[in-house]
Amino acid sequence: MSPLRRLTALGTVLGLGAVLGLGALPATAAQAAPGGYTPGANEWWMTSWAVPQQVWPLTEGAGVTVAVVDSGVQASIPDLRGAVLRGGDVIGYAGSGDIDYATYSDSGRDGHGTAVAVTIAGQGYGTGTVGIAPRAKILPVHVLYPLLSNGPAHIAAGIDYAVKHGAKVINVSLGGPAPSALSCDPVLQDAVAYADAHNVVVVAAAGDTNLGGTGPEEPASCAGVLAVGAVSQNSTLWPNSTRAPYVSVVAPGDHIVYVGSDGRYDTVGDGTSFSSPLVAGAAALIRSRYPSMPWYQVVQRLIGTAIHIDTPVPSNAYGYGVIDIAKAVNAAKFAVTASSPNPVYARYLSWLRSSSGRAWAKANGVKVAAATPGPKSAKAASTGKSSAPATGSGGLSTLLIVVIVVVVVLIAAVIALIVRSRNRSRRGPRGPGGGYGPPAYSPPGDPYQYPRH
Asked: Under a CB-based contact definition with an 8 Å cutoff, are residues 80 and 73 in contact?
């Protein structure tokens, strides 16, 4: 039995069954003015983070695609009108991910993937629920329900699909038991590395220990994943949030608005399944404002600006603390320097240097970055430009390659002019034909090997 099937046999997939039945809650109008959003009355985290006042004036997530690797997304509900792109299915259904297959009998709640998508990019047209990054687009990737025969491989395939179809952030609010707190299924680890190497932020729920077992969860445990725990309204740890060394940050995960596949707002959800998309949405906000900022600096900003709750820091419960979105999206005012921790990137680099990582890197043309992750200065952080080599194919950024090629062409042109001038002086003026003889021989082939993506 696969890890995901083992977890499902217990009746839960990372908080799908963790729902507080508080009865029907009133809907509130979200679109207060043209171009403006007003969160629903029960989205308490919006007030805690001062999102409308301090975050949305800077960025609303425009231009960023967030993949929801989950049970599918019910794209037809009013709260997601215009926010869902055509996605895909990796478990054998001929669909585009726009149908949510999670039913109450499967998960303890209808429409898990839909609820996650609304948390990220809700539009407020139906229940009044607005996502944390309302102008981001959702790429739905169906990896779950009703087929669960190959859990880790399905999640890995979903991550691959998301990368190949333009996602800049991937949210995975599901998983299964991991081999250990700092390892994961090899196929799943390769998929995460593929996303990292292609400059994609991967965010995953840390797990709901008391609901889904007592061990670590994957893909949260994979190297290169930003794993998110859950806190309640008073910043205390949500009781079922998994405690593990891979937890990097925490976010609200208690009394979260739940809009399921029927488009109704009649319950409130809890669990790391909902703290994870809030962080994925925060990553989308950063990427929208700083499109040139590489994935590992986006992660570093979320970690480096988090509010410390527990001691020591980091702790297995809170990681580095509760994310502070207003600071995370304002790099000019809240700089994160090279000395700031980045355990997610450090683990990714460490895995790349392992025997498995080296084999994968060689097969995929990825070179390990030699520099310490993060910008070398506050100025670099404020512009979102990386001062460390990227860990993508070939190990060189596209900009650096362009600069090298331009310099080489200019040098070659100067040399050609010098040679031509010398030939003229040596041979005298050109004759009626205008030439000096046959052209010089040039060896075939391109001397430059560009990275292939």
From this structure: yes
Tell me phi and psi for residue 95, to 5 degrees: -125, 180
Q: What is the pLDDT of residues 154-204, one digit of tens each?
A: 999 999 999 999 999 999 999 889 999 999 999 999 999 999 999 999 999
Out of 96, 273, 275, 386, which one is annotated catalytic?
Answer: 273
Return the closest-CA partner of residue 153 out of 202, 91, 215, 196: 91
Instruction: Please name every residue paired with 208 in a beta bridge, in sequence order, or none if there are none.
Output: 241
Domains in the chain, ordered, with CATH? 3-383 (3.40.50.200), 397-426+446-453 (no CATH)
Active-site residue 308, yes or no?
Answer: no
CB 288, CB 60: distance < 8 Å: yes
pLDDT digits (tens, 9 = 90+) for 358-385: 999 999 998 876 434 443 333 444 444 4
Handedness of CA 181, 183, 187, 189 (dihedral sign): positive
Q: What is the pLDDT of residues 89-142, one digit of tens each?
A: 998 887 899 999 987 656 566 899 999 999 999 999 999 999 999 999 999 999
> Is residue 350 flagged as an active site residue?
no
One of 79, 107, 112, 221 is an active-site residue; which one?
112
Task: Select which of 70, 98, 106, 208 is catalytic.
Answer: 70
Query: What number is the average pLDDT over the span 26-35?
Result: 39
The answer for residues whose C-beta is within 8 angstroms of residue 47's C-beta and 6 or more apart is 39
Q: Tell the residue number behind the tokens 């680099």, with chain if given.
A: 349
112 annotated active-site = yes
